[in-house]
Amino acid sequence: MQNSLFFKNVINADSIFESIGQLSDFAKTAIGCESISLFLIEEPGQITPTSYSVNMSTAVMEELQEVVIRTDYFAGEMEGTPFTLAQANGIVKASLLKSKLACLYGFHIQHGHAYGALLFAFQSPTLLTEEQLQLCKLSELHMEQSIRKIQFRKQVLKQQAYETLFNTLRVKDSFTVDHCYNVAFYSTLLGGRLGLSETELERLKLGALLHDVGKIAIPDHILRKPDRLTEAEFNVIRQHPDYGYELLKDLPGVEHVLPMVRWHHERIDGRGYPDGLSGDEIPLLVRIVSLADAFDAMTSTRVYRNSLHVHEVREQLQTHAGKQFDDKLVPIFLKILDEQMYIRKDGMRS
């Protein structure tokens, strides 16, 4: 599985169970792993971890839960080394014997207040190759990003003031809703790297989430058309920033969100819409959303076209830096993508 596809799957998975399902198929094919499981403390004060697996019995999961708790979620174990019966003792050894698993590769998971362990289980002693260990590390990265995205969605859904608008958009076009979540996620990654304050990040997150809300006013036969749009239809689509602005402008506390909704299709060279802004006339948060919006659009598959490979998208972003996109933001965003997709030979993230 290509790393770029793996990264895209992180963003598109809607639940940890879905991510585990993807990883399970991948691990069985690429690593020869019989089963994969995740044990996760998701909330402050939670004592017993939530367990996730595919095709693993409850009895085996209970024994593995005992193992991860008593090894402190593999926090003290050296990643990439097998954990076998020979290394275990006491209750941990008894649990491994009951599970009928001879070898575990455990990877500590940590994001914010959430932490846990991702386990690759084998029924016989197994020594993974360097390439297989790299795939395990990539799987660990995939899972951490899945957890991050799902936590992010939970935060966003707490914005009750916009629940009705967002639910209306969900009914009208679920693809656009998924796209909005993705753009908000990418935007927050970039904003965090730029060192934005917590207040700015919250504004960025909300503005990115609502940037396409004006598509509520676009006729269904255009918004959900399964073929390429005609020029006339595209001109209708181009009105969604104006529509979004009008929908939101009278709501309380939206003054910081409105620029992202109205101007996310403006361009650095002044050839964007609806107001033809250029350069520094376009606020920083808007420039961030514009970049994230384009990236997700190019890497998403629609009925009428396939997604571009991430490397092709990279070339597009570099080509249009200083024209469509802020040329200072593009290399920073690309570095973030590299960090998500590649792992150095020493097993550490680049």
TrEMBL record:
Q: Residue limits of the HD domain?
A: 176-298
Q: Where are the transmembrane segments?
A: none
HD-GYP domain mapped to chain residues: 154-349
CDD domains from the entry?
Answer: HDc
The organism sits in which domain of life? Bacteria
The entry's protein name is HD-GYP domain-containing protein
* Organism for this UniProt entry: Paenibacillus whitsoniae
The organism's taxonomic lineage, starting at the top: Bacteria, Bacillati, Bacillota, Bacilli, Bacillales
